[in-house]
């Protein structure tokens, strides 16, 4: 979309509102206008304001000349550069990305009411559910997160779960243009830490649960938790909805300075999960809150979605949506891609494709797969781990995998690491396991082998990549190849087991 022109003096004025030190204009008169804030020289267009961000891998100031050649009208710098363009010299370019990103996108957040969703697992599903609830309430909502951005029937791809602030504000402007009154934003801990959502204020912030993750970035679990907890500060949100099924959620609910709705199976939960059942046909949750009991139906499959459904319910209530409308909304939201996507069944083995890539998420995915097994059925797990990321998780993934019956260790995109070494680290967690472990380095071959080995009562569970369609084995992103786990599994199902022959819908059940 084409963003409005903004005068250089307005840019200077907004930049001056950011604490940290003086803002100095180096060239450019009041008649100068810029259009769109861009942080990547490869995405600069005519009239852009190019923000020179110092990063971990490179320094954006080095790309100022390239930005000028691509048509940038001016630069945002924290040290003057020898490039013939007007520059705004600020103490920290990154600290300006939120306020200036908002200004150059036309301050779209002022026309939207926002909900933010954070948590180690379940962000995408809960955001999708909440968007469905808000749409059902007649307030058109956009959503932005791991699966990209959507509003109405339109969608756009994004490279990060929570985009850099300028892109995020531009997406919000796109949602406003499409008639959105609300937006749901997935807020990753890394984004919170790097200031990507600075300047946004939410009506409700949701915490879906917590476990160790992203320690490559955060260093310690305390830092990781504190980054997520920032979403619950008074200047960020009016209210919180917190899943208190783990100690970290409980701690957040206890410490948050905003009013919190506690969600979970504990007796003191404000929205209490009394029971649930799940099967290939969907999930049913029985909840109690201060207005009584509520029964929710959802086409989403798996016990892992029970807290997500309860959290979306609670967030809808906080936002003033009537109970029946929330239930109607939740009943119609289609499962997000790669979140326990169920294939096969009907006389053939069931295949589940899921994004689980942490030990606890994997344990939950295996439990869901067991729920979906027929009598005497076995779980065939296809497991890998992404290279050059969060290496400390590998042994824990292996340990969770012990609950499967057969484990097919494979590659998940080595990003330049030795795939055999990654698989060996997964194997450490599986030492002495009752599960039989096989190594098939080629991912397509591993999925095919698991689907071939599975019988009609079995489940082949393919984890780690979920919705992803590109896989990378080198350090050069241009080498990424197309690989869609669901597509491979579907092809394998048809090749090995033919087309569906009969219906079967067993339900697993639990009362808590
Ligand atoms: C830790 C982190 O998030 N890093 C992000 C950050 O990197 P960085 O600050 O180190 O930037 P850099 O790569 O050194 O580059 C510095 C600047 O030069 C610019 N540049 C670079 C090259 C060039 O040719 N021209 C150019 O202008 C870059 O755009 C950047 O502005 O800014 C970059 C540009 O926006 C991001 O690509 C990069 O994301 C990295 C690669 C990434 O993968 N981040 C992941 C871990 C992430 O953020 N994940 C979260 C969590 C998801 C979840 O919950 O699972 C997410 O929100 O997606």
Automatic annotation (TrEMBL):
Membrane spanning residue stretches: none
Gene3D superfamilies xrefs: Mur ligase, C-terminal domain (3.90.190.20), Mur-like, catalytic domain (3.40.1190.10), MurE/MurF, N-terminal domain (3.40.1390.10)
Post-translational modification note: Carboxylation is probably crucial for Mg(2+) binding and, consequently, for the gamma-phosphate positioning of ATP.
Domain of life from the UniProt record: Bacteria
Enzyme Commission number(s): 6.3.2.-
N6-carboxylysine modification, residue list: 228
Domain Mur ligase N-terminal catalytic: 34-82
Gene Ontology annotations of biological process type: cell division; cell wall organization; peptidoglycan biosynthetic process; regulation of cell shape
Cofactor requirement: Mg(2+)
Binding locations of UDP-N-acetyl-alpha-D-muramoyl-L-alanyl-D-glutamate: 41, 161-162, 188, 196
Pathway it works in: Cell wall biogenesis; peptidoglycan biosynthesis
Keywords: ATP-binding, Cell cycle, Cell division, Cell shape, Cell wall biogenesis/degradation, Cytoplasm, Ligase, Magnesium, Nucleotide-binding, Peptidoglycan synthesis
Subcellular location: Cytoplasm
Family recorded in the similarity comment: Belongs to the MurCDEF family. MurE subfamily.
Function: Catalyzes the addition of an amino acid to the nucleotide precursor UDP-N-acetylmuramoyl-L-alanyl-D-glutamate (UMAG) in the biosynthesis of bacterial cell-wall peptidoglycan.
Protein name, UniProt field: UDP-N-acetylmuramyl-tripeptide synthetase
Species annotation: Geodermatophilus aquaeductus
Classification lineage: Bacteria, Bacillati, Actinomycetota, Actinomycetes, Geodermatophilales
